Amino acid sequence: MENTMDKVAERTRMVNGKLTSLADLGYVAVGLDDNWQACGTGVNGSFHDAAGHPLINTTTFPSMKGMTDYGHAKGLRVGWYMNNCICAEKHFTDPTYIQKHMEESVKAIVAAGFDGVKLDGCGQFRNLTWWGQLLNETGRSVMIENCHWGGTVPGQTTGDAPCTGTTMPSNCPYNFFRSSTDINPSWNSIFSNLQTTIKFQGNPPLSRPGTWAYPDMLEVGNMATYNEDRTHFGAWCIVSSPLILGHDLTNEALTDKIWPIISNTEAIAVNQAWAGHPGRLVKQWGGSGGNDMQMWAKALPEGKQAVLILSNNNGNETASIDLEKDLGMSGTVAVRDIWDHKDLAKATGTFNAGTIESHDSRFYIFSQ
Questions:
Q1: String of b and e for 276-305 (b: at least 16 CB within 10 Å)?
Q2: Running DSSP on this structure, what letter comes out for residue 45?
Q3: Which site in 167, 224, 345, 352 is 20 to 30 Å from 367, CA atoms measured?
Q4: Mean pLDDT estimate for the chain
Q5: Beta strands 305-311 and 280-285: pairing type?
Q6: What stretches of 239-360 show up as alpha helix (H) in DSSP?
Q7: Are 242 and 268 in contact (CB under 8 A)?
Q8: How many CA atoms lie within 13 A of 169 on its CB side?
Q9: Contact at 8 Å (CB) between 215 and 176?
Q10: Using DSSP, how many helices (H) and how many strands (E) does the chain show?
Q11: How far apart are CA 59 and CA 1, in angstroms?
Q12: Is-contact 337 361, C-beta < 8 A?
């Protein structure tokens, strides 16, 4: 974890002529995931003791507070992980102990100085409303990641976290929620996971400030080709997904390879912008499934729109945008190429995006 924190904070690569860290770009949170626990050492073979305290594998993690202090000293936020999948806890029935387990877990999060917690769906401690209530009562600001694989989402009236999700900010008791199953570094996985965001892009959208939909972490750097890496990144940007790097940050050559993608400040700005909608699928066409090509768009401030056209095709495909029909933009429109960082010729009526190679993309900003 501390090696990863070092890599996030160090300024060894250039952006716009200036030495820049991942943290400078906005990647400021580092999360500890599963396998911190001392499996089997607690009550009934769990990793919580009789008083409800979580039991940590101190051989690997000798001091959680020391680790968070290390991150904080570098200007980072540090996250933990609960309701674990490895040696998942599912067998508790005593209400008094269940309450102690929850209360002591929350106390441990706060005492160790964590700034966030990923709450998985494997154990029995899935009640996100209860987690949120207990964390709020501590007075510490702790970001909650809902990792229930699309099973607990805004708009539900029952279950682990009922909320409308239509207030501003969202009234759901978590800050971002998984819309999908686990991702893997394959094109089919990232494309499939992207589609799970569509149902939260309605009117009003359920992915919004306070509670963002995310189709799992990024596999940028782990994909088969550079084209897939950048299309994957652009897709997560256009739907306002939290950008969680999933490659090995200690692999300098790998980070060098994808640096132009993950440090693209124009793409990141699209991801971070809010003008009333998180981004949407505008249209799709081609192939037996009708989705060989997809066009996504996101409203930006000042009436601008970001557009990502991606290829789900195994071959090359041409693409064009009907500016009025697809984007509601009439007259002459200025065009900015996000991938190539350059202004293109102004367009009127139809914009021709040219030929797009397999699993590649075009990323633009249109403005009037």
A1: ebbbbbbebeeeeeeebbbbbbbbbeeebb
A2: G
A3: 167
A4: 98
A5: unpaired
A6: 252-262, 265-272, 323-327
A7: no
A8: 10
A9: no
A10: 10, 16
A11: 14
A12: no
Distance (Å) of CA 235 to CA 144, 193, 270, 271:
23, 10, 11, 9
Q: How far is CA 351 from the centre of its chain?
A: 30
Give the residue carrying structure tokens 């429109």.
333
∠ CA 298-301-303, nearest 5°, is 80
Cβ neighbours of 323 (radius 10 Å): 23
Give the pLDDT band of residue 114 (cuts 50, 70, 90): very high
Residue type at 303 in one-letter notation: G
Q: Which of 28, 143, 114, 110 is nearest to 74 (CA)?
A: 28
pTM over 0.85: yes
Q: What is the 3-state secondary structure (H, E, C) of 332-352?
A: EEEEEECCCCEEEEEEECEEE
Residues ≥6 apart with Cβ < 8 Å to 220:
229, 230, 232, 233, 245, 246, 247, 258, 261, 262
Which pLDDT band, with edges at 50, 70 and 90, does 259 fall under? Answer: very high
Unique residue bearing structure tokens 């607690």: 42
Look up residue 259 and give its two tokens: 């640096």
Joined together, the tokens standing for residue 43 give 């009550």
Q: At what angle do helices 95-111 and 128-137 cross, to 10 degrees?
A: 50
Yes or no: say if 240 and 211 are a contact pair by the CB < 8 Å rule.
no
Q: What does the alpha-carbon distance between residue 215 and residue 236 come to, in Å, rounded to a whole number?
A: 8
Q: What is the pLDDT of residues 153-194, one digit of tens each?
A: 999 999 999 999 999 999 999 999 999 999 999 999 999 999
Taking CA atoms, 296 is separated from 239, 240, 272, 281, 359, in Å, by 8, 12, 16, 4, 15
| Pair of tokens at residue 52 | 């409800």
What is the distance between the alpha carbons of residues 47 and 58, in angstroms, rounded to a whole number?
Answer: 13
